[in-house]
């Protein structure tokens, strides 16, 4: 078996020169990895809340377009939908009724949805609307 020239061989026998390299590399890379991981969780939580808002807005508008449905029933249904998944704190529902359609708008502060990285979503409000035509 032919050996590589010494300039291409790893110096595996002498580990004293690299004894702290792994620790230093981990200290540099770990905060970036944790930030990306927690940022991904934060975006997943915000997307979950946005999808839930859309469903709650649909259900609120649907409650109003049913014959005999009132705006108060629609608002109650929208907030109930948010409470089912634990996002009811700070949630609000506004319903606008015209002659032929109903628009339900659900909103919740993004800080109420956050799992810890509030600085990225502080001051933001998640809002979704749904417009349905009356029967």
Helices and strands in order:
Layout: H1 21-65, H2 71-84, E1 92-97, E2 101-109, H3 118-121, E3 125-133
Antiparallel strand pairs: 1-2, 2-3
Helix pairs in contact: 1-2
Number of helices: 3
Structural class assignment: alpha+beta
Through-space gap between termini:
85 Å
How many separate structural domains? Answer: 1
Average pLDDT rating: 85
Query: What is the β-strand count?
Result: 3
Strand content: 15-25%
Largest pleated sheet: 3 strands, antiparallel
Order of helical and strand elements: HHEEHE
Approximate shape: rod-shaped
Q: Estimate the helix proportion, in percent.
A: 40-55%
Write down the Rg. 27 Å
How do you describe this structure in short?
By secondary structure, the protein is of the alpha+beta class. 47% of the residues lie in helices and 18% in strands.
Notes on the structure:
By secondary structure, the chain is an alpha+beta fold. The protein has one domain. Helix content is about 45%, strand content about 20%. It is built from three helices and three strands, in the order ααββαβ. It has a three-stranded antiparallel beta sheet. Strand 1 (about 90-95) and strand 2 (about 100-110) form a beta hairpin. Helix 1 packs antiparallel against helix 2 (about 70-85). The longest helix has about 45 residues, at about 20-65. The radius of gyration is 27 Å and the shape is rod-shaped. The protein starts with 20 loop residues before the first helix and ends with a strand.
